[in-house]
Design goal:
Number of strands: 0
Oligomer: single chain
Mean pLDDT: 94
Strand content: under 5%
Distance between the termini: 64 Å
Low-confidence stretches: none
Largest sheet: none
Helix content: over 70%
Structural class: mainly alpha
Order of helices and strands: HHHHHHHHHHH
Amino acid sequence: MLDTTYENAYSGRGNARYSIGNFNGAIEDLTTVIRMNPERVNAYSTRGLAKKGKKDYRGAIEDLTTAIRKDVKNAHNYYNRGIVALDMEEPLNAVNDLYKAIELAPDFKEAWFYRGYARHQLKDYAHAIVDLSKAIQLDVKYHEAYFYRGWDEILSGKKESGCADMTMAKEMGSPDEADAIKQFCK
């Protein structure tokens, strides 16, 4: 039986429910935590991720924005809000949030990758290449970063280096590159 006066019990169960994909249960428990303690930042963060899991992107943005207001130095909240913006097909908003995540955590390779991906969506290939290169610098086995950097290089007229990156990604075991190599690197 769960102690209905103990916020940590609800928080723990809400986090566990989130981690197994029970988004409705997670939202229910984390809403209880927030009612008990509105300053519990991680409850807003995880509830926002649970809402993202349910494709309630506006609700996710609201919770992550609240978490950011309560803790402006948490790079993961900016990162997660940026990812939700990408899900909502708002790459410019994603770039802005991912910029802040990188400012707070310069070695956050996923933030570099997704900012590059968002810039790719904006057709800002030169800046996308810079961001994806940084992600690769942070993790030389980041095959997704090689793939998108290669694609952006090809779209920028740098076919040789783009095909080399796509080939590198393929050699690392990434499944998407074979078709792209056939299409772009003949």
